[in-house]
Amino acid sequence: MKISKKIIDNLKLGGVDFYLSVPCKLLANMIDILENDNDVYYSAVPREEEGMGICAGAYLGNKFPCIMMQNTGIGNSVNAIVSLLQLYQMPVVFLISYRGTPGELVGAQGGMAKITEDILKTLRIPMLHCSSENDLEKISTFSKHAKVVESPVAILCDFNLMKDDT
Amino acid sequence: MNRFDLLNKIQNILKDNLVICNIGLPSQELYQINDQPNFFYMLGSMGLSSSIGLGLSLSQNKDVISIDGDGSILMNMNTLATIGNRAPSNYTLLIIDNGSYGSTGDQRTFTDENTSLKDVAIGAGCKNVVECSGDETANEISKAIDDKDNSYVIISKINSGNVKIDPIPLNPITIRDRFRKYIGIVKYL
Lengths: 166, 189
Fold this sequence. Notes:
Radius of gyration of chain A: 14 Å
Number of domains of chain B: 1
Structural class of chain B: alpha/beta
Strand order of the largest sheet of chain A: 2-1-3-4-6-5
Number of strands of chain A: 6
Largest sheet of chain A: 6 strands, parallel
Helix content of chain A: 40-55%
Structural class of chain A: alpha/beta
Order of helices and strands of chain B: HEHEHEHHEEEHEHEH
Shape of chain A: globular
CATH topology of chain A: Rossmann fold
Helix content of chain B: 40-55%
Oligomer: heterodimer
CATH class of chain B: Alpha Beta
Number of helices of chain B: 8
CATH architecture of chain A: 3-Layer(aba) Sandwich
CATH architecture of chain B: 3-Layer(aba) Sandwich
Order of helices and strands of chain A: HEHEHEHHEHEHEH
CATH superfamily of chain B: Thiamin diphosphate (ThDP)-binding fold, Pyr/PP domains
Largest sheet of chain B: 6 strands, parallel
Strand order of the largest sheet of chain B: 2-1-3-4-8-7
Radius of gyration of chain B: 15 Å
């Protein structure tokens, strides 16, 4: 819970006040925290691409949105990222559980893991890769950066960082 | 009645509300009929008009109308479940259901065969699901806007067919900023 709390605290410190998630077991503690937090909006959403649309609307309405998802969700969302969030220059934080990185138990997650960072690079999305607890302090500044550059940004949280956060 | 006729008939209701308008011909027609700063024209991301409007209605208090199409709803059908569980009372989804992919050459959609978006919306948990003719649509939108306690899904059954029209000349940042200025967020314009 310590890691998850630190991530949410830093997102909130960065100004993020509207959260969606397509669940992942590595995100479960963060979802619990947000469901009990009356200061911010939180909802589950069935599909990441749809979440990109809801985040765009939330930005138009003056919220600073974050969508939490597995890295597989990036694959589901490429057109929405490019032809909505980037076309209209909308700041949105992607908080990504980086499935398929070392420690992962499900071999099939390895495929998307191998190409996740290449996809984000191709999309020119700034990335913050968190592999240890010390990295989490960078999340607040990195989130603010999304607003400054009017762009989606991606925070990748490694499997091994999240797996023991009970 | 086709989409252009319908948009003409409802323009007076739309002009006083925040409108998210679907990509392609719906946006181009609405722009030509009566462009307003409070109209957000989608230039990409087919399928997400309902979702953008939902996020907007959750984030501020003004009434929001998402104008969507049958083809776009079929592409993002999970949106109806999200709306059925999360839509606030200032949200109205208008699905212009002409049974065809209008912007790509009027190919038939599944609503022209076996699919009922009314039944899907009800099954997904949406309240106040109304299916109506083009002539009844203005009245149904007015009722939805006047009801301050409930969200609505209005499915307007009209004929397919398009008018010849030009692309929207606005750039995306102009669309974004004049829209946010109307809401009161952007101050510098």
